[in-house]
Fold this sequence. Notes:
Blueprint: H1 5-9, H2 13-21, H3 36-42, H4 50-60, H5 67-81, E1 95-99, E2 113-119, E3 129-134, H6 139-150
Antiparallel strand pairs: 1-2, 2-3
Amino acid sequence: MGLTWELTEARSDPELERGLFGAPQPSAASRPEPAPVYVHTELRRAGVTLELLHLEYLQAHPGGYRYTANCDRYRARRKKRGVWMRQVHRAGDKSFVDYSGKRPSLTMHRQASVYTSSCSSASWPRAAIGAEATQTQRIPDFIGSHVRMFA
């Protein structure tokens, strides 16, 4: 930094520290925490990532946590909270169906809707998970997918 003994003796210790190491960073206690419920809810949306949410957080709080610390804190909260829900049911008793959030392209100008189904399958010899591409999510396609699933 081009400092000589004469220049350093003329400065106080705090001035030298700021010159050598920059301004002190805010302590972790003074940094705002990302809203865990908001982050968890937003991550359910298609295309939303922790990185995108972190960039939004930094826009609102420029002195906030950096990306790695932010991810570590989110994962620790999630692990601590336990977000699991156990569903107990008899094999073949229920079927869960929905359209996936992503729509793959059938051709250059047409997209497909992907109908997915899963059944409780403890005693089924074959995999009880299926998927089918339909042109729309309208009632005729939805009912047709159900009929083919039960067949």
